[in-house]
User: Fold these one by one.
Assistant:
Number 1:
Amino acid sequence: MQSLLVAQMPTAVVNENYFDIIIKGGWILIPIAFLSLIAIFVIVDRYIVLHKAASEDERVIAQVKDYILNGKTDSALATCERSNQPIGMVVAEGIRSMDYSIEDIREAMEGKSREVLNMLETRMNILSLVASIAPMLGFLGTIMGVIKIFYTISLTDNLSIGSISDGLYQKMICSAAGLLVGIVAFIGYQLLNGRIDKIAAKMEKQGNDFIFFLKRGK
């Protein structure tokens, strides 16, 4: 009889799937799940935007320089605006300021560069917040669960390992879920920031090249 009970015990554990275990984490998993959806949306959205921004066609800048050498500033400006790329926006600002000094052109392009970078960094602060808040929410859920466990023990005076471990493992799910969402958000934040830094460096280099090109022409 005892051997039969022992044989049946693992079967009950195996039949409990991961979804059933996760559900036992409690209501705190709802905001954590919501944060995970926000993180995924921001990561995908920023990746698409940054991928387009990084795929700059260098032939556009070469064509712009050719137009300027031939005195076709309107065509050069139109080419930059059609490109709809970060460096195109910056160079377009420089072309609009060509009647002024080189320093004025540089300041105009630097101001536009900051504006473009702010646009690329849109929603990145949300991703940073998710990376910070999700683990804290998970830890809060675990702490609340532990408080409930000890409150129940104080009422029932039942200090059995089964009653403690059963409730504790359920609440540890909150911490695990929060950490998982936080890690995903943190990795996404770092990788996307790395791409933004590369775009900024490339934009600065091409902007300086354009300034040097104008200096030679003036």
Number 2:
Amino acid sequence: MNTEDLIQSLSSDVRPVRRYALGCRIGAGMIGGGLISLLLVAATLGVRLDLFEAMRGFAFWMKWTYAISLSILAIAATARLAQPEILPLPWLWLLCVPVLLLAGIGVGELATTPSELWMALWLGQSWMVCPWLVLGLSLPIFLGLLWSFRRLAPTRLRAAGATAGLAAGACAASIYCLHCPEASAIFVLTWYSLGIGLAAALGAIIGPRALRW
């Protein structure tokens, strides 16, 4: 059998892929994992009692916008890396934008706060547990993405694992906002980002093994 005949025989029964199959597959994994993380927050940590009041203020939307903007960019990168062909990611630098904007808000906070209160502003009341809670809440979402990848074909496994972990961590941080009472930008920039970074690092470590096909 020559090469052309072999290719023809292998491709004769291949079904066409639906146009939005990639997005649906990744979305299903993230939504499933996100619902589990949401239930974990409600059942173990508890939704803050003043949530509706907090949603009228700037601090809640600052945290939520930071987390959700990182997650959107990370999901887009994950979708690119889930495909076998090497697609460029020239817009990946946009991940720096929400970080820099939040840093600017944090500098403004420090400028208007007496220096003796800077440490309290930075550490808040939950700095020791915040990154670990974000990391823990990211695990169901990351597992959902691993399920999504079972029918996908990534070739850059470490990069795909890292972006999947980043997406899971950022989504987990947005869910954690429902519980977290902290209102400082410098707190969010440090401890939320640390939790998200730990999730990305975990994805980069696990990716080469868990995403192999």
Number 3:
Amino acid sequence: GFADALLGEMAEEFNCAIASYKGSLKKFLVQMAEALDIPTSEPKYNANGDEVGEKALTADGLKEEIACNVGDETLLIIPDSQRLPASLRYWLEGLLDNGINLVLFAVANPRRDVFLRLLEVELSLPSDLEIREVMRKEARRLGLSLSRSQLANLQSQAGRNPMLARKVIRATALGINNKKPEHSQYLDISPIIISGLMALGIVRFIGMGTGNKGLYIVGGVALILAMMFKQIGQVKGARKRLGQ
């Protein structure tokens, strides 16, 4: 992905590390420390003070060790940073005070904590050709042979999302053919509906003020019908498939 490409581009200029948070704080810190060649253990001593081996650092110990060994020559890259818990976000804020360079990738900017201190750059969506290349690589990894026409057909199910593109290929390899696109983009037209209802209300009040009963009745009935259709349109059934 783009994070890996950035890592390869900046590796010669900075001491780089890339780490993804997947639910385990300690694994995340160990991954980061190992990428920066920072020790993840400390000497272990017996009751006589003799060194008898090593013991793994705790999560707090890893935080302190990393903070002591990073600086302005360090670049930390974190994909899917919207997953980071508050404790890590506050810790990263402290690292910024040490002068480190930090790149956080997120689907949407959470606009809090450490994110408020970073510049926001919106990346453009991948092109159709780039998505098909992602799908081709995933198909090759799974030993699946797909023609260009098949890739084009499958790409329509994933849109321009690399994660969904890989998922579509995995489903195809398992013989699961889901022709419905998994990506959805909706346009909120509620302001238009509300404006229409207000316009009907204006017609009703004009009829009331001018004494035009026909206009008053038509405006009132139209307003009530529009409100009824609006409420009926909000009715949604349970989205369950057969057998669930």
Number 4:
Amino acid sequence: MEAEFAIIGGGIVGLSLAYGLLKRGKSVCIWDEGDSAFRASRGNFGLVWVQSKGLHQPAYAQWTRASARAYRSFADEIETVSGLPLNLQQDGGYIIHMSEDSLDADRKLYDGLRNRLGGDYPFEVMGHNALKTEEPNIGPKVAGALYCREDGHVNPLRLLRGLTIAVRQLGGTVRTGHRVTDIQPQSAGFTITDQNNTTMVAEKVVLAAGLGAMTLGPQLGFTAPIRPQQGQIIITEKLPKLMNRPNVEVRQVDEGGIQIGASSAEVGLNDREDVATVAGLAAHAVDMFPKLAHARMLRSWAALRIMSPDGLPIYQRSVQHPGAFFVTCHSGITLAAAHAGVLGDWLTDSAEQPDLTAFGEDRFDV
């Protein structure tokens, strides 16, 4: 075998898995399509986020929290190996609400999840005045926020670069510009072929190709029930300190600019931004933080999330082809620590591996 593991997909998910496997002494080769791919890892919001995750599936809430708790040591490792600061901050975060009704509706959902978790789910409800004490620059239209002390954010592009460096430092191979077109199960292992008919044989294969799994998944016996969901983002010029903590729609990045996002649209494989959505995002951000009315927009873009039918990750072993795994999620940043950590126990059939039954493809069987 040329490698014990071939990982298809060189984004945050694939690199995190590779890093965890390399730490376990496995040989790993990553096949990465390159910049022609729909790269969620280059277009995301950079949140390490707990609140609102798993409101209807407690197992996802627990999985997310476990990754968030492991994030500091994970980030420290990547910084040490790569030499890049990731600017991780985990000082809490908000979901800001513009009406009392929506704030109360979400509070009830959070209370329900807390009850299902035996009281172990951290959040606070902050009215306008309490939030303004923490965030003096919020506007008068803000009703309040839900606050979770375990939330945070990271520089996602540095995380991507840092993971790439770390994987190579640990002996992993990253083949960039190699779009996998065919994966053939053999009597022992798998033969992987790219668009240039370059091939290799690996003992095991992990499909972490984002939206590319829609075509590659069936070759390995996966249904791969995923779809693209478009989100758009705005970046402003660098500004003086405007906010102390991130929220899911507006955050101040480590370089000083303001990142605005959280749109969603079902438009298929379309990653082109539109003026109407950008204008709506900007207007909403100004309602939250009026000082943004005078900020200059430097750039904007659209990117595609990878969404399962219920929005949760999918972790699946192939029944037809043992040794093949399917890993996908739309929270690759938040879950990077779990993917580099305990998910490696699942991929290597360790005696102690996480319970992933809630995240199998069979949950979609009707």
